[in-house]
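[audit] Reproducing an earlier prediction to check determinism. Same input, same settings, fresh worker. If the tokens differ from the archived copy the diff job will pick it up downstream; this log only records the rerun itself.
[audit] input (92 residues):
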Amino acid sequence: MAEAHSEVLLIWAKLANDLLGTTSLEAPERKRMGFNVLVFCAELASALHSERFGPTISPDLRNSALEVVAQATLQIGACLAATVRDYQASLS
């Protein structure tokens, strides 16, 4: 499960990266992509650290999956940059 989820997350991260290269900071597609990748990334991270699934994941697979989570997190941050900026501006 973790391996397949990691492979799909990597595809989503690449799609997000492509979107970042072809859209403006304000593009609504970035927000949708950012939240979709965030949820998928959170599911994988949760499985890696869960008491139920975590112990069954090999160290190599865990390290590989954590690298994908890190890469996806960078794409998520870039996709949601305008959303975070707008939220912070609303607080002041």
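[audit] rerun output stored. Observation attached for the diff report: Residues 48 and 56 are 9 Å apart (CA to CA).
[audit] end
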